[in-house]
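Predict both folds.
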Amino acid sequence: MNYLIKTNARGDKRKKRITLIVVVVVFLSVIWASFFSGIFSSIGAWIWSGENSLSQSIRETAEFFKSKNTLLAENKELKDRLQTMTVDTLAVDITRQENKELKEILGRNENRSAVLASVLRTPPFSPYDTFVLDIGKDKDVQVGNYVFVGGTILVGEIVEVNPTSSKAQLFSSPGKISPVLVGTRSVSVEARGLGAGNFEIILPREIAIQKGDSIIMPDINSMLLGVVEEVDTDSAKTFQRVLFASPVNIQDVRWVTVVKSGSLR
């Protein structure tokens, strides 16, 4: 009987121990699950937040490049429009200048001292800085006649005459030497052609000359040949180098006047 009581007591203790262990395991499992659930929840939130941030960054970058490309396209369109407007304005200016010259000359007249000529070819399409004109012996053009642009700007002289055409050599032809007057004292010196309407003068450093001064040809009613563009003065040198150019763009000349011999005096 005592043996049965002891056996039952042992069984009850074992049950209580097992129950306690089960309770402890369950308790620990609940705590462990809660702990990792929080961690996983935090990790998930961090990943979600990162994905949102990355998506936002990608969207912002895409918008940036889209805006930049739009601005570049608009900028190109504006440049194209400006270029078109510039070309149109230039065409209007050229037409206006030609019209002005034609009005000043009032057409070709055999009894006048000057005759209008159309320029068929200009540099670089004509050799050695020359103009090919559409008048010749038919308009009584002679070798040595002076050629003007706008009736006032001297650019060259006739060097070859054909029945219905002629050739004018520009005073700016490379290496061509021409007598000129420079500075406020109208000092007589020689100018050397550099091509395309450009000239060079070498003169003593003490002669006063500055940018914007006029260069004229002597004995031709002081007709304008060019305007000083640069003065290279070196205090260590005895001479100064003066660069000047024709007031007109030689490549753009379409009309000239040929002044006949003896009409300039």
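Second protein follows, with its predicted structure tokens after the sequence.
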Amino acid sequence: MKRTIAIVAGGDSSEYGVSLRSAEGIYSFIDKEKYNLYIVNLTKQKWEALLPDGKRSPIDKNDFSFLHEGKKIIPDFAYITIHGTPGENGILQGYFELIGIPYSTCNVLTSALTFSKFTLNQYLKGFGIRIAESLLVHKGYDISEDTIIEKIGLPCFIKPNDSGSSFGVTKVTSREAIRPALEKAFKESNDVMIEAFMNGTELANGCYKTRKNSVVLPITEVVSKNEFFDYNAKYNGEVTEITPARLSPELTSRIQKLTSAIYDILGCKGIVRIDYIVTEGEKINMLEVNTTPGMTATSFIPQQVKAAGLNITDVMTDIIEDHFQTCQ
């Protein structure tokens, strides 16, 4: 009997549209001979399952069920691909824990920890992982330009602490640009991180582990045509992505071992992507950990899976079935 998989997309952040594109990618990747698939769209206003005939069926939040052709459907597994709240910060994970539906991503604690860029960086710093110098500013707390320049320097990045896809991010090169950048970032988040600029090669490395497999994927080198890897670079083609990255075998091995170690330190689950900048002297600096990475056909993870000689459908099956194997 086929299991039913809910691909959970949408959310309440600026990344809503990106999430829907990832849901389409995941829908195309998962084995439809093996699973019944439904995309479920979540917003603050509505939770709806998208049915094959184009109609929408409201979700009963008591058990995440919906009706299809008069039959009550309760998904066996939720593949979460919401970028931002509530799917990337532990809120949705907590809900699925309460109602007993297994899901694809990290648990509540790990999701919440990785969603706060500043908190994650300070935590991993305790394990000896190199990160950029940074400050955290809460909304309503005044910080002077002089303090930022003294402690972080210019240029620097001012970004929402708990947002992705480069929404609200500014590369600041002058004192006059600091205040507008803060205002822009605060539109996306109540907390803003001010991070020192690092000059180097930007890289992305995917990883997933199951009971049967431990896979660190090839590394992607990111060469943006813009000032930095902003939204247009990520989603509108203003970037060159090279997989595998143009790195020595030794540096490649070091980065992949670090990716695997961070995955284990955090107790990650499912597919995770870790972003780095390698600076002068081949120093590896971690930027962030993405626990619900983009999964469109052209996103980093599908690129890396292909470069590894793996089948993306088999990878999806491995991740889904891992829960049911461990529960037998």
